[in-house]
Amino acid sequence: MTDALARRRWLSLVVLCVGQLMIVLDATIVNVALPSIQTDLHVARADLTWVINGYLITFGGLLLLAGRLGDLLGRKRVFLAGVTLFTLASLLCGLSTSVGILIGARFLQGAGAAIVASMVLGILVTLFPSARERATAMGVYAFVASAGGAIGLLVGGVLTEALSWHWIFFVNLPIGIGAILLGALLIPKHRGIGIHHGVDVVGALLVTAAPTLLVYALVTGSSNGWTSARTIGGVAGAFGLAGLFVMVESRVRAPLVPLRIFASRSVAGGNVVRALFALGMFGSFFLGALYLQNMLGYSAIGTGLAYLPLNIPIGIFSLAITARLVRRFSAKAVLIPGLTFVGVGLALLSRVPPHGSYVADVLPAMLFLGSGAGLTFMPTLALTMADAGPGDSGLLSGVSNVSQQLGAAFGVALLGSISATRTHDLLTGGTPQAMALASGYHLGFFLASACLAVAVFIAVVVLPPAARPPRPVPAELPAVRRKAGRARAAVALLSLSAARVRRTADGRQQAGLRGSLGGDHRPRVDGPVGAAVVRHDESDDSGRVQDIVVDIR
Fold first, then answer.
1. Based on the number of CB atoms within 10 Å of its own CB, is 450 exposed (0-12), middle (13-18) or buried (19 or more)?
2. pLDDT tens digits for 42-51?
């Protein structure tokens, strides 16, 4: 591969990460601006929630459909269309003069975000077919995707207080335009597998309706009541549509979502773990922000700054450590301690006192959460995308993003509602406000840590056994070559496994070894060795030698 092509691939990764950062930021950047939006547009509290919910509903509902459309129509084309829609919707949000326009624009923003998110991973895994490079690229993507939520809290506070709430949307315009222009130039063209075999229209409707209805039921459950007929009916209806979707997909000739992908333990187990991880992490963002502002008196900017120590270990592990650990051990072996660290961090937050100290009570939990997230995000991506082929990487990318999005929505809605209910019950019973608030937060963080414990159990039991790392190249091999001569080096190579002997077209004999060396570097022994020439022909993505051929003269 030429240097120019390699540079283009890594520049394409930058474009993909910029697109991912936009949509991750928008999932949290609006939270700190809600009071300003409510005051400026004279929004009722019940309507204000739809500024968040409208984005979440279309985002979660369209991910699977968008991912499959990328496989069918071409991932580059669909990605650029998603960024364009998201950028135009951001402009409309910033120009909104009424809550109705803002909410409608947020629905469009969520649709654009779903298209972009479903394409990023699909393009990434095809850009980097080498396992080593793919692990590094996923580490960069993992940092952007996992740290972006915390960064959004800070950016939203700064823009809202320094300028106005309109600028939390206007900031997307230069980023989106840059992503469109650079993406058109750098991202390789993908033709897609086409729709000549037909389009699964019924499956497309069901796969959109089921998650949309489920997200709607989750994000409105706290206001409607978790035991209300509307909430229970919404959840039951979503599962009913999902069951109907499975039945349809098992019978149609060209299914929108082939059910065979869920036969993989990596895909099925990895997505469940990913959802539970998102539940705990995004739930901690929500409850942690409330604790910092309501109990410790932090401002919007102060809350964002308080989450910076969480981003530092995420960056260190995602960019420099996790990919190497995955290559050395396995995704599963790295994932389990990462999930454990996140669970420990949430457990620490479940014990914070009403008027605690940030350094003593919050900072240690932030460091555990950041370290765990840095060790978890990339391995879950690697597992959920492990079986991605050229024709379904967009689909698996969509499934992976759906699991995270639903986990995040469920975490915020469920933990927030349970925490608020606990606080309300204690206040009704005469408990002081500070103690009641702290107790509500404690319960939410405890349940989040329990979900991480379940995730660890699933990772241990469901995910396939970790593959053994490749054996290192024998350290004495270079010494054999230098000290004992080339003939002894040939003998040493041949002794590693049984040789295959074949006769070439010119009458010479060749003895070959296959799969007999391993390691991260590629040793080479070339040249005449007495009556032989020893060489290795090729190695795979992990650096393991595939062929060693000895020409016997």
1. middle
2. 876 556 667 8
